[in-house]
Every structure is written in C-alpha cells, then in structure tokens.
Amino acid sequence: MSIRITGISLPNEELIDFTIVDGKWDDQYSLDLDQRIEGWILPGLVDVHTHPGATKAGQPIDEKLLRAELLRDIDHGVIAIRSPGLAGTPPDWFGKDLELPIAFHAGPWLAKPGQFITGWGRRVSDADFPRVAAAQASASGWCKIIADWGVDDEAISLDVMKEIVTAVHEVNGRVAVHSQNEAGSTAAVLAGVDSLEHGMWLNEDLLTQMATQGTALVPTLAIFNQSVERFRTQEPSAKRDWYVGGTERHPHLIQSALAAGVRVLAGTDSGELSIIDEIQALAAAGANPLTAIGAASWQAREFLGLGALKSGQSADATIYRSDPRLDLEILAHPEWVISRGEILRSPKL
Ligand SMILES: [Zn+2]
What we know:
Layout: E1 3-9, E2 14-21, E3 24-26, E4 35-42, E5 45-47, H1 63-75, E6 78-83, E7 102-105, E8 110-111, E9 122-123, H2 129-140, E10 142-146, H3 158-170, E11 174-179, H4 182-191, E12 195-198, H5 207-213, E13 216-218, H6 221-232, H7 238-248, H8 250-260, H9 275-284, H10 289-295, H11 298-304, E14 317-320, E15 336-339, E16 342-345
Parallel strand pairs: 1-4, 5-6, 6-7, 8-9, 8-10, 10-11, 11-12, 12-13
Antiparallel strand pairs: 1-2, 2-3, 4-14, 14-15, 15-16
The structure holds zinc ion.
Zinc ion is lined by residues 49, 51, 85, 269.
C-alpha cells in the first residue's frame, strides 16, 4: 500500500510531497497510489514533561492507566513524550509499542532527604548524588533532580549540581532539574543542566547563559495557572506568596527567555491537561502562535533528537484540516496522526 502525503508544513511553510517507505518519508513519486492525505502538516506533537501511569502520591505505575493516558496522548497528536520522573520502572512496551508515543524517561525522581512527594522518588545524599544520577542516566538516558521542593527547603548546592552534571554527561546522559526557587535554578543553570523544569523565581540575568549553553526551559504553565487558584484563597503566608508570586511573574520570564533565545518547551505535568492546554497557556503568556506550537513540536523534537519532515527521516506527523496558527483549537482535532510510518488516527468518516 502506498500513501502520498501533501500539504504545507510548519514552521517554514514548505510544500510537502512524501510517500511512506519502510516507516520513513520518501520524496520519490509513487505511481501505484492507494491513498492521498492532504492538510497542514506538523512533525508531530511532544509532551516534554509528563508523568503518566500514576495519579495518587506514592502509587506505583498502573499499566492499564499508563496505556490509557498514552492512548489519549495519541488522540491529541502527541507522538513523543519525555517523563522526567516516573512512579517506578516502566514496562518493556513503554516507548516501543508502535500504537503509543515514543517515550524518554528519567526513572524515579532523585531528591534530597526530606524533600519531594512522600512515597515517590529516591532520597539521595549529596555524596551519592553524582553516582546515583549517572547510573540512572546511563540506564534511561535522563535523570531528574529535585533541586528544591518547598519554599524554605535548602536547594542542592552549585558544587553538588556541577558534580552531577559532570558525572551524567560523562555517560552521555542528560540532566533535568525541577526548581521553584532562585537558589536551585541558579545552581542548575550555572552547572549547565540540560533542562530546567518550571523555573519559577529564576533570575532573568541567567537567561543569556541558558541560551548559550542550550539549557531548555519547560515552564509547565497551564498546571500552575490551575493550581495557583487554590493558593490564592489561602491566608497570607510565605508559602502562599512564593507560589502565587512565582506563577504571576512566570509569563514575563517566558517572554524574556524567548527574547534571549532560550529553547522554551511545552509540558503538561498533569494527566488532566492536554498539550493543547499548555500551547494555549504559552500563547497567553506572550509567545506568538508559531512559537507556542513549536514548543510542543519541532523545538521539542530537535531537543530530544527526533527527526524532522525530511526525506529519509522517520515518518512522524500530525495533519490538520486548516492552519493551526490561525486558531490553536485546531490542534485539538488532528485529522491524521502518523508515527513511525503507522497511521494511528484518521478522520472519522
Ligand atoms: Zn513534573
């Protein structure tokens, strides 16, 4: 069977005319054509920060829930995910099942003793952090470090963060760092981590260094915009001011990050939100529609080493009836979802 895909691709408005051969795009014209697909073409959507498979704190991975959440990702056109922290070791099919997204993960969250969600993650001493992080990253490609957790928590020091980054990069792994405090995000950026997750209270003076060394920012705005409401109704406290203030200044930080050339990427951090919510939140924070879409597509794919819409690359695409830059809601209804050459969703006739 031969399928021809034609249309306009983003970000460059290039005219695409491909067939799929052995799971890859091919620009040779095929005469025995069975099907023709037309539309506005993205190289697929990516959720760069998601923890599927467990909802309640301390709960282990539930394979049924994991599969259900990943199938819903495909419904939304999300054909790749990165899980910076999981409730356990994922099953063998995670990332390999052709009907589900390609998946990158960092194993369990790694946190200082006394920090992070009880029942999830591993607690690691400063002395053990570099070795434990490198072992995780050499097993799964990524490790996830909780640089700081609560408002008053001591952050991982710059010295320890530097040792972690050196040890992980030595085994060709990458470091994702959670931070919501200035001390933690400063240590992360100065140590040269690969991605900063959330990044509330990041000192904007560090954005140029982030851009230069390629540290991505994954602000997970939509979930914070949702959860901040709970804090707003609370009595004034240091914790309330920290959470509300950090969320309120985040749109400005994102605008400054984009202006400085930082790679800003889209992550939901919640099974209740879709990647479309995060794309819309980035747009509401001041990213133009093309930039907001790119944060969940070509920018994320390049960051994770996934292919582009080019002949010889993996046949991955989400295809829409009209130009999604005109109305981001269009992204909620992909007509076609193609991953590794397999057509996973097609228009309901
Ligand atoms: Zn998270």
